[in-house]
From TrEMBL, chain A:
Cofactor(s) of this protein: Fe cation
Ranges of compositional bias, category Acidic residues: 285-306
Keyword annotations: Chloroplast, Iron, Metal-binding, Oxidoreductase, Plastid
Protein name as catalogued: superoxide dismutase
MF GO annotations: metal ion binding; superoxide dismutase activity
Record EC number: 1.15.1.1
Region ranges (Disordered): 268-306
Residue ranges annotated for the Manganese/iron superoxide dismutase N-terminal domain, each copy included: 52-134
TrEMBL record, chain B:
UniProt domain Manganese/iron superoxide dismutase C-terminal: residue ranges: 122-224
Annotated EC: 1.15.1.1
Class in the EC hierarchy, top level: oxidoreductase
Cofactor: Mn(2+)
Pfam families per record: Sod_Fe_C, Sod_Fe_N
Annotated protein name in UniProt: Superoxide dismutase
Function: Destroys radicals which are normally produced within the cells and which are toxic to biological systems. Destroys superoxide anion radicals which are normally produced within the cells and which are toxic to biological systems.
Subunit structure: Homotetramer.
């Protein structure tokens, strides 16, 4: 238990001061520091916190006829399980063992130079959100605050629908299409956004290849559709666009998206409070520091213009 | 097949405005059509089911051809208007759909029913080159199967020859990127499709089983012909 944040390597210490994901398994967040400290202390035998295969929040036949039991039994029972088992094998006994899934994703994304456990870790996270994004008797239109935000940020629900469907159908190869909450966040560990504005807190539609998810860009995902062929091939064969239409009309769980929106907003508010605290602290410290002047080389990019 | 290609090229080409093309000094648009297979859909069973072959050829490959032709038409228009940003924007669709057409056209020739020589090891200079480069055919097969199995998402695993260095290479490409994206001098000998649509109906999530079985219908004779063309024996 003797490990402290100061003994961590740089990317981890940045990460610990700046939580990026928002996990439903919040216990992983709260115990993360101790867990990680224990791992680094090396005085103890490895304590392995194996990541679990979470089942969908409904029986495997509950989405029939839009998503067959056969599809779900392979998709959850084989693909999702495979990602969990392979991830556990990859991280066992490493520094990643015992960290939250979100932390593993961000660390192994490694600013785009992907490390081996990334694909499995992100695929576990993506599939958990995908199961939660659907429900029996889903579809229809979102309500209240979520609908207002969709209308504010896309113009209308129909425009959003088109954008989302286009993102999902135009993702070349395997990947995902997302509705995400884009809070303002600088990609610098200890920085404070100098100009936070309400406009930054927007809903956006994005797509991503293979296992990549918007957590790595600092966005908070609310809804996802899996457009790997294994998600729809048994039911729709090559008809990806049919699958996307049915997903939006019959499967999407707007209740779940609404709940995640509230979680995302709460997470953002928490980040802002932390930013504010940090800024106050920095301002206090700045009074003690000598003034450092910086010179910018304004001629440096002239050659580009020729 | 040649006649069909010719006919459809003419028909489709006639739909573009030739007067605009000739006014601007552009060639008439050449469009592409789905090549026929040299064997029946069911002829590769049990390694690859007839259902997979039919869908793969008639739906997937057809979609790449259709969308490549569409992108070409849009490209022609954008070029004729001098609309550079549209030309640039079209590159991803051209690469994806054009690559899909190129890759699948090779893939069909890479396969042959077992009774027509599918799976028979390469003879002659390619066989020697494989032994020299990889130790044995089994080592090469195992290397390609492993790389195909671990490829994340959709893509292809290739045996190619570098036509300048006269050297065999194993490469993987993502999505529908053709082998040439890994080097301008690379010529594909064998390309194996590891998109899920290539095996899912039969092998489900077990891509390694598909990769294990596909060697039983690989057409090494075709690969040898391409190799000998690029690396003639003196």
């Amino acid at each position: 238990m003797s490990g402290t944040a100061t003994s961590l390597s740089t990317p981890c210490s940045i990460l610990l001061r700046q939580p990026l994901g928002f996990s439903r398994s919040s216990s992983l967040w709260t115990t993360k520091h101790e867990r990680y400290g224990r791992r680094r202390a090396n005085d103890f035998p490895a304590v392995t916190a194996r990541l679990e295969l979470k089942p969908p929040p409904y029986p495997l036949n509950a989405l029939e006829p839009h998503m067959s039991q056969e599809t779900l039994s392979y998709h959850w029972g084989k693909h999702h399980r495979g990602y969990v088992e392979n991830l556990n094998k990859q991280i066992m006994g490493t520094d990643l063992d015992g960290m939250s899934l979100e932390d593993i994703i961000i660390l192994t994304y490694n600013k785009g130079v992907i490390l081996p456990p990334f694909n499995n870790a992100a695929q576990v996270w993506n599939h958990e959100l995908f199961w939660d994004s659907m429900k029996p008797g889903g579809g229809g239109k979102p309500t209240s605050h979520l609908l207002e935000l969709i209308q504010r940020d896309f113009g209308s629900f129909e425009t959003f629908l088109n954008e989302f469907k286009t993102a999902a159908s135009s993702q070349f190869g395997s990947g995902w299409a997302w509705l995400a909450y884009k809070a303002n966040r600088l990609d610098v560990g200890n920085a404070v956004n100098p100009r936070p504005a309400d406009d930054d807190k927007k809903l956006v539609v994005v797509k991503s290849p293979n296992a990549v998810n918007p957590l790595v860009w600092g966005y908070l995902p609310l809804l996802v559709i899996d457009v790997w062929e294994h998600a729809y091939f048994l039911d729709y064969e090559n008809g990806r666009s049919d699958f996307i239409t049915i997903f939006m009309e019959k499967l999407v769980s707007w209740d779940a998206v609404s709940i995640r929106l509230e979680m995302a907003k709460a997470q953002t508010a928490k980040r802002e409070r932390q930013d504010l605290k940090r800024r106050e602290l920095e301002e206090r410290n700045a009074d003690d520091d000598p003034v450092v002047e910086m010179y910018l080389d304004s001629d440096s990019d002239v050659s580009e213009a020729e | 097949m040649a006649l069909r290609t010719l006919l459809s090229r003419r028909t489709l080409a006639a739909t573009v405005r030739p007067e605009l093309g000739s006014f601007l000094g552009l060639r008439n648009l050449v469009t592409f059509s789905l090549p026929d297979l040299l064997y029946d859909y069911g002829a590769l069973e049990p390694a690859i089911s007839g259902e997979i072959m039919q869908l793969h050829h008639q739906k997937h490959h057809q979609a790449y051809v259709t969308n490549y032709n569409k992108a070409l038409e849009q490209l022609e228009l954008a070029v004729s208007k001098g609309d550079v940003s549209s030309v640039v924007k079209l590159q991803s669709a051209l690469k994806f759909n054009g690559g899909g057409h190129v890759n699948h056209s090779i893939f069909w020739k890479n396969l042959a029913p077992a009774r027509e020589g599918g799976g028979e090891p390469p003879k002659g200079s390619l066989g020697w080159a494989i032994d020299t480069e990889f130790g044995s055919l089994e080592t090469l097969i195992s290397k390609m199967s492993t790389q195909g199995a671990t490829l994340q998402g959709s893509g292809w695993v290739w045996l190619g020859v570098d036509k300048d260095l006269k050297k065999l290479v194993v490469e993987t490409t993502a999505n529908q990127d053709p082998l040439v994206t890994k080097g301008a001098t690379l010529v594909p000998l064998i390309g194996i499709d590891v998109w899920e649509h290539a095996y899912y109906l039969q092998y489900k999530n077990v891509r390694p089983d598909y990769l294990n079985n596909i060697w039983k219908v690989i057409n090494w004779k075709y690969a040898t012909e391409v190799y000998e063309k690029e690396c003639p024996v003196h």
